[in-house]
Amino acid sequence: MSDQRFEGTKNYIATDDLMMAVNAGVTLQRPILVKGEPGTGKTMLAEEVAAALGKPLFEWHIKSTTKAQQGLYEYDAVARLRDSQLGNEKVHDIGNYILKGSLWQAFEADSQPVVLIDEIDKADIEFPNDLLRELDRMAFTVYETQETISARHRPIIIITSNNEKELPDAFLRRCFFHYIKFPDEGTMAKIVDVHFPDLKKNLLREALNCFYQVRETPGLKKKPSTSELLDWIKLLLAEDIPPEALRSEDKSKAIPPLYGALLKNEQDVHLFEQLVFLNRANR
Amino acid sequence: MLIRFFYMLREAGVKTSVTELLTLLAAMREGLAGTSVDQFYFLARASMVKDETQFDRFDKVFAAHFQGIEQAFAELTAHVPEDWLAHVASLSLTEEEREKIESLGGFDELMEALQERLREQEERHEGGNKWIGTGGTSPFGVGGFNPEGVRIGEQQGGGNRRGVKVWDRREYRNLDDSVELGTRNIKLALRKLRRFAREGAADQLDLDDTIRSTARNAGYLDIKMVPERHNAIKVLLCLDVGGSMDDHVRICEEMFSAASSEFKHLEYFYFHNFVYESLWKDNRRRHSERIPLSEVLNKYGPDYKLIFVGDATMSPYEIVYAGGSVEHWNEEPGAACIQRLLNAYPKAIWLNPEPVQRWPHTPSVKITQELMEDRMYPLTVSGLDQGIKRLQ
Q1: Burial class of residue B230 (count of CB atoms within 10 Å of its CB; 0-12, 13-18, 19+)
Q2: How many Cβ pairs closer than 8 A exist between chain A and B?
Q3: How far is B157 from chain A (nearest CA, A)?
Q4: Dist CA B349 CA B329 (whole Å)
Q5: Which of A121, B71, B181, B384 could bond to A165 as cystine, CB 3.0-4.6 Å?
Q6: pLDDT at B303
Q7: Does residue B381 sit in helix, strand or coil?
């Protein structure tokens, strides 16, 4: 049982509801499912929880071809076949050809680990179902050697999803759920402050204004998110752009400088330029 | 108390289960929620709602249930509601405003009236001049014109947010969806149509063949590779757009997105009301970029499965007469066009988003059903299941 509580870190601003979801998951030892717009810090959450609670982190990044089995272990039959050809002694022990996956490694950790299962929605639609039992019992059987691996310390499991596929109900029932909503201006100012502590106040205000205006542009395919804002501010600082240049009242420079960091899609850039142009014509 | 809350949630359509209720109770036993209503709200939401589109419903039920809890609280700790009310008021009233309130009979009286109305009022309210809500002229509510008004909810308290406001803001409003079919269900139904075939680059180990070849090779390893298995099913999807189909846009989008991620060979076309001698692929340029039916028939072989999605609700003339189309002059009646399609693609179904009960009352649906030789199914999970079986 853990008496530690997650309350954000000096690099990560956590809202009250996020803290509650994480603490509930940690206390009851259930997986925490985190959804939200891309770039709102879902993956960072696991890193920061691990750092804040001083626990080792095991990451398992999911791709469209990932199978549930790969998180547990893989049996390298081809290597064994090859070794048998060469008469290698290793070949007599099948255990030499079992490659441990992230979950197995986490199960063997000396202290309670944090496991990140990143972008679970990328995998096949049945993927979460294949992990139900393993996540419930925190144990699995290695078929080849007939041994049962169970977790020495029940890991804290953080799962992220981008909502590309819906997850099965049975899986959802076992998790705590948190939807990271897009931060409001106050929270956003705090986040930027954490990353750029000595940013000029007026530059930050102008940048945030500008950023929220861009986000409100109707019809954008991909709205800029927190991580894009941080990149953009980094660029603004590197280029030493004065806060005045961000004010959109300035007709000749109505498009914010270095907007390439905010808009990642040529259609969006085009749309944005058109709107700005229309806006100018109306004045 | 929580059991009633649980059933209220289920009645409101939040898909929560007994497991989740037990989880919540276990979390409360661990003292996670503490004594704060805010914390309890976050905890209950994290454990019982697993879909952000349902946050709004959860908030509504929570707010409704809170009315009851509030009274329970009042009995236990009589000062809590007053404290909360005073807090709300202190956040939004300036000294001048307070003076004005004094002129109206005093702050306490106003607070009492507010409490009274909070109890009387059952739902969120907009406009009007008595109830608490938004945009009205009552002294209570948000965005109104009464200078001595009290702001309820929707107040940014900077980290010092009090209970009611968080769920009263109902930020997840426009995400709510009441569709019965999720894309997951559709995908699972479409899955049955899978037929795997191997094509492309050989990048997987063929174990059987490797063993056989190795044995033949006097025990020396001879590795054989095969291409990965892909879903080889080919689908032609024809979607009705515009007019009466506007009510079904959501479900058609879901069907379409599920199908496009499930099938590698998916061709889609749009039509309006009924299939005539040409179709189109882009609704914005449907008058300029039309694809003749003959081109479709020649381009896609008979191994394609044909799926129509449409409500088949129109005037019967639009199907059986030449020139019946509402949009243009069609040389051939729609019935002849669809017959040609059905001859070319023996495996075909029609999915209708309208409820089955309404079908017999629409003559055009009957005609279409006859043309389709009864292969019309409702666009629901079970209907899709039956339809897919027919396509196999």
Answers
A1: middle
A2: 79
A3: 11
A4: 27
A5: A121
A6: 84
A7: helix
